[in-house]
């Protein structure tokens, strides 16, 4: 009885279960059929053709009362009872959870559809509101316990074991450019095992220790409810599955993938070797949402005993007791017993998942498990809230993961996981257990499976025919010839089956036959624009034309549509200024003029008169060869007028002549007149007059046009004149 009572106390000290299996392994894109347990949508568009689980299991133990160094347990000097660290509170807790997966498989039945069938056995124990101070007093038995008075409160413990067979279906629901959504559901057939619970209400325990077990007493108050389908708690029945206790359950899930490089996976451009890119993870970000373990199992013959535990028992009574049920009935009276049918719920959980493909084969995953069950409800199993951050390196045959998780009761834990093809093993608390001297959690998972991966097909010669179907896998060839190249006897690149002249080399354009030369002009018919008339190579085998019939071929005729002279390159003699003098004889071909002046315009008296007027209006600074600007541009305007007149007579020669009055030294007047004439000539040249058409000369006071005796006369004598001095023909005056 002592052991049974301590078992009861230990059972009360077990707290919230974390019903998440294979922590750190589930986010792996190669988790295969195990992934369906977390989100049934994961099996579609997976990296597997099929994945067959032979055996796998995941178990965990968590608590917030007792911490120790698991790696020190093997040392003879380590005493777990003494060296472990205890943290008693009014609501301590822990976990015992086990999940065994039997023969199971998943299979992609089509590119957008997948199924899975699995078998599974599970066990879970939940406890809430457990007073750890009570266990701290009884850890060494009543013999070593000191007196205490503890308000136990309302401890609530539930344990459930069951088996299940699940059938899952998943499909791609939507795909648009970078957006990809898939969903899945699982239907479960459930077979009940053990379903037991204990619940205390307003319980207290007060112990008075004496030197005599007969006088040491335990006083308790409150009530205790014990329910179970087999009475294994009271020792009346062993554990077994109950085929009469059955139920149904379901899981639902969605997964969204963001694929920014979707164009690289365009199925419309895929080749056979690409295998529709089934071997590739195509997302940058993946988000998952699922709800699992919806459902219950109906137990038809559940027994529930209600005990009023107000009373006093001695330590000796406890030591002598052999059966918990007999002890309770002997010392607290016959319980109120009822038999009834009851549905035992599954530990319903909502799973959240986010997976980031950081770089190539490196990923970072965050998932959370949120319980959707009321923990305080009588006889209901539930899951602890857990968050797991898992960086991992992932390839087809290998994965290394480092799960960092926070559990509602045992706190932060760090573990690791490995996958080597068909084998996988890991623990979400291994590193913590290795480094910490007071770890409050331990878990492990491992399994063996037969994975059959999707893969890119092999096409060694890249001829579009897979090696397994290619008769010449290392040499490219067409499908029609089973991947082998067609023969080409004459090596003209036209294969024999298409070559009209298979033994004589010829171009592809002529179906493998050499081109002919019908007109024998050395230009082959394929490039001869006139294959039946001989012509030069330069004209693509055609004779040169003479459109205007002037015996000058068009290729040499500068006027191919107008008859002309051979000497004039096929063009008639030109008269650009239409003055009746051909350009060849015209000294001024761009300006009309009479034939008597060789086609150049004659300088008339009117023109000379105008030049005289304009030239005499060009003024200088007194006594200097500097153009006068005081007239506000009048001088410059006169020069422009002179320039326009002279440019109309391109073959006329003009002289700029300078004159002075007789005032002053005659020699100085001569130099001044020459300098002024030169200034005017340079000004006209600067304005664009051809220098060949101009000369200059100074006469001083030697050619007066008025009397130097009067001021008016002297003013008229100080002048510049433009004189026509001749006509230039062929560079000569």
UniProtKB/TrEMBL annotation:
Residues 607-728 form the OmpA-like domain. InterPro entries: Bact_OuterMem_StrucFunc (IPR050330), DUF5723 (IPR043781), OMP_bac (IPR006664), OmpA-like (IPR006665), OMPA-like_CS (IPR006690), OmpA-like_sf (IPR036737), Thrombospondin_3-like_rpt (IPR003367), TSP_type-3_rpt (IPR028974). Residues 1-19 form the signal peptide. It comes from the Bacteria. The lineage of its organism: Bacteria, Pseudomonadati, Bacteroidota, Flavobacteriia, Flavobacteriales. Keywords: Cell outer membrane, Membrane, Signal. GO terms for cellular component: cell outer membrane. One of its GO terms (biological process) is cell adhesion. It is found in: Cell outer membrane. One of its GO terms (molecular function) is calcium ion binding. The keyword Membrane applies. It comes from Flavobacterium aquariorum. This is OmpA family protein. PROSITE patterns: OMPA_1, OMPA_2.
């Amino acid at each position: 009885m002592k052991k049974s009572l301590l078992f009861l106390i230990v059972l009360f000290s077990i707290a919230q279960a974390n019903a998440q299996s294979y922590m750190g392994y589930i986010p792996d894109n190669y988790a295969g059929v195990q992934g369906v347990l977390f989100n049934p949508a994961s099996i579609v568009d997976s990296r597997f053709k099929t994945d067959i689980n032979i055996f796998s299991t995941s178990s965990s133990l968590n608590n917030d009362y007792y911490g120790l160094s698991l790696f020190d347990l093997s040392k003879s000097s380590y005493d777990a009872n003494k060296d472990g660290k205890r943290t008693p509170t009014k609501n301590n807790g822990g976990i015992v959870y086990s999940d065994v997966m039997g023969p199971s498989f998943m299979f992609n039945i089509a590119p957008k559809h997948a199924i899975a069938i699995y078998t599974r056995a599970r066990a879970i124990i939940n406890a809430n509101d457990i007073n750890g101070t009570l266990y701290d007093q009884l850890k060494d038995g009543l013999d070593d316990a000191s007196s205490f008075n503890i308000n136990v409160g309302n401890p609530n413990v539930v344990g459930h074991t069951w088996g299940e067979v699940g059938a899952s279906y998943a499909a791609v629901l939507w795909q648009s450019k970078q957006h990809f959504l898939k969903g899945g559901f699982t239907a479960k057939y459930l077979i009940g095992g053990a379903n037991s619970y204990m619940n205390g209400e307003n319980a207290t325990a007060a112990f008075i220790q004496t030197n005599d077990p007969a006088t040491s007493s335990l006083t308790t108050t409150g009530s205790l409810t014990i329910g179970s389908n087999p009475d294994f708690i009271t020792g009346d029945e062993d554990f077994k599955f109950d085929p009469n206790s059955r139920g149904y359950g379901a899981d639902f899930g969605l997964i969204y993938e963001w694929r920014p490089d979707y164009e690289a996976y365009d199925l419309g451009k895929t080749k056979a070797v690409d295998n529709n890119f089934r071997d590739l993870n195509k997302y940058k970000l993946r988000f998952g949402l699922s709800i699992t373990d919806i459902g219950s199992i109906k137990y038809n013959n559940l027994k529930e005993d209600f005990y009023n535990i107000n009373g006093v028992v001695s330590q000796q009574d406890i030591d002598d007791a052999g059966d918990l049920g007999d002890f309770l009935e002997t010392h607290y009276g016959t319980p109120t017993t009822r038999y009834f049918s009851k549905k035992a719920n599954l530990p319903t959980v909502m799973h959240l998942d986010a997976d980031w493909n950081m770089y190539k084969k490196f990923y970072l995953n965050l998932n959370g498990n949120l319980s959707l069950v009321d923990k305080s409800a009588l006889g209901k199993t539930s899951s602890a809230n857990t968050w797991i951050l898992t960086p991992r390196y992932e390839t087809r045959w290998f994965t290394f993961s480092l799960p960092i998780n926070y559990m509602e009761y045992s706190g932060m834990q760090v573990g690791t996981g490995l996958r080597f093809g068909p084998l996988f093993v890991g623990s979400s608390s291994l590193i913590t257990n290795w480094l910490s001297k007071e770890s409050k959690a331990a878990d492990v998972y491992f399994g063996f499976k037969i994975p059959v991966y999707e893969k890119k097909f092999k096409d060694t010669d890249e001829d579009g025919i897979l090696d397994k179907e290619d008769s010449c896998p290392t040499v490219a060839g067409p499908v029609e010839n089973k991947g082998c190249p067609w023969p080409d006897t004459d090596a003209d690149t036209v294969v024999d089956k298409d070559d009209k002249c298979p033994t004589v080399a010829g171009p592809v354009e002529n179906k493998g036959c050499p081109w002919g030369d019908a007109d024998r002009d050395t230009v082959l018919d394929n490039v001869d624009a006139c294959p039946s008339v001989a012509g030069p190579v330069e004209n693509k085998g055609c004779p040169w034309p003479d459109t205007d019939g002037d015996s000058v071929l068009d290729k040499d005729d500068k006027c191919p549509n107008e008859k002309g002279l051979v000497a004039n390159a096929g063009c008639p003699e030109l008269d650009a200024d239409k003055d009746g003098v051909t350009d060849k004889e015209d000294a001024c071909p761009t300006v009309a003029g009479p034939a008597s002046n060789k086609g150049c315009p004659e300088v008339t008296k009117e023109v000379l008169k105008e030049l005289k007027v304009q030239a005499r209006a060009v003024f200088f600074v007194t006594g200097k060869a500097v153009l006068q600007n005081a007239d506000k541009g009048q001088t410059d305007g006169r020069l422009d007028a002179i320039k326009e007149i002279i440019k109309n007579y391109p073959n006329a020669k003009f002289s700029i002549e300078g004159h002075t009055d007789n005032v002053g030294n005659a020699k100085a007047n001569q130099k001044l007149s020459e300098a002024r004439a030169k200034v005017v000539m340079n000004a006209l040249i600067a304005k664009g007059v051809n220098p060949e058409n101009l000369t200059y000369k100074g006469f001083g006071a030697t050619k007066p046009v008025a009397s130097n005796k009067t001021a008016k006369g002297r003013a008229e004598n100080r002048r510049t004149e433009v004189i026509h001095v001749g006509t230039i023909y062929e560079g000569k005056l």
